[in-house]
């Protein structure tokens, strides 16, 4: 057996971690978009 398979650091489901990563990045880019829209609107 592979020695890395014997000593696993995390037994959590990878789909949960992927979903959290997607959510965090989505909120980050949405926040940047909202800030840019507010600045663009205020510059008129």
Automatic annotation (TrEMBL):
Q: Which InterPro entries match?
A: YqzM (IPR025416)
Alphabetic keyword roster: Membrane, Transmembrane, Transmembrane helix
Kindly list the residue ranges recorded as spanning the membrane: 20-43
Annotated Pfam families: YqzM
Q: What is this protein called?
A: YqzM family protein
The species this protein belongs to is Viridibacillus arenosi FSL R5-213
């Amino acid at each position: 057996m592979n020695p890395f398979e014997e000593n696993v650091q995390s037994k959590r489901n990878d789909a949960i971690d992927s979903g959290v990563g997607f959510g965090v990045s989505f909120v980050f880019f949405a926040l940047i978009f909202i800030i840019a829209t507010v600045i663009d609107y205020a510059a008129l």
